[in-house]
Amino acid sequence: MADLSWTEPGAYPVSDGVWRIPLPLPMDGLRAVNVYVLETEEGLVLIDGGWAIPEAREQLVDSLRQAGHALSDIRRFLVTHVHRDHYTQAVALRQEVGAHVSLGIGEKPSLDLLNAAESVGDNDVRRLRRAGAHELDLPWTDTRGERPPVEYYDYPDAWLEASSRVDLGGRELDVVPTPGHTQGHVVFADTGGGLLFAGDHVLPQITPSIGFEPAWVQQPLRDFLDSLRRVRELPDLRLLPAHGPVTDSSYARVDELLAFHDERLADTLAAARGGARTGWEVAQELPWTRRRRRAVDLTPFDQVLAAFETLSHLELLVLRGQLARGEEDGVAVFAPV
């Protein structure tokens, strides 16, 4: 059973001048997202912002007060990626307190689609069809009233370019591109302080979803594995994840994630060799979550993630020459070479 003590509200010191504040994610199995607060001479810099909902705003106010601060002290947001639980409250609070928001340049194609909201669902439907999962409903199409307003997906004040550096006055953060979870995902490495603000790229208790974004790409798993190896080339840093407790070694978890995907690729190949032909058919042959559940027993949201993620494993096996891909009525079909 995963330790959920990290989700308890409050302001938790991580190191000198750095606090961890978990914010609630109602209606989300992840339960909470960690926002990291960095104290600087110019004011507060937050790594990620949380989801733009009243519960998260209220908790942020209360937790900042525990740390001796207020919303008005926030000067800047450095956002790891565009998902709603990381980006939307940063944009909402920008409107309120005038904070500056930065985001990885690789997220621009997804933001372009999110600002043309009518096309996002169509893109997801096409991808489900490609995975052979047309019988699945998109669980977010019937809950638009619960989604943040489109203005919370407004563009950032600045795009973070690949391999740049953010000087916070006494603390320097290296911006490390880590595409895979999303194409524009970045992590922030404070090598001087021994800290890795890892967003959703390296999570201590779960494996991050792959390529769940409006502007999806064909090889998100290849990108994700390359990004894990890129983080492995950094010093071994204290892991500060977006979901889960702080842990002591980024190396340890990166190695576990690489090993997991090696095993998953082998199981995916075996399922395809056993006769499963589409992403959804293969997904139904694989175990999911630590409880090793069947894909059909997952929540509707997680079923869609399973179909998308299995498709990414199959596409990487095609790239490696271990499977061949064809197409039948818009569905990608796979067969052993």
From TrEMBL:
The lineage of its organism: Bacteria, Bacillati, Actinomycetota, Actinomycetes, Propionibacteriales. InterPro entries: Metallo-B-lactamas, RibonucZ/Hydroxyglut_hydro, Sec-metab_biosynth-thioest, WH-like_DNA-bd_sf. Pfam families: Lactamase_B (PF00753). SMART domains: Lactamase_B. This is MBL fold metallo-hydrolase. Residues 32-243 form the Metallo-beta-lactamase domain. It comes from Marmoricola endophyticus. Gene3D superfamilies: Ribonuclease Z/Hydroxyacylglutathione hydrolase-like (3.60.15.10), Winged helix-like DNA-binding domain superfamily/Winged helix DNA-binding domain (1.10.10.10).
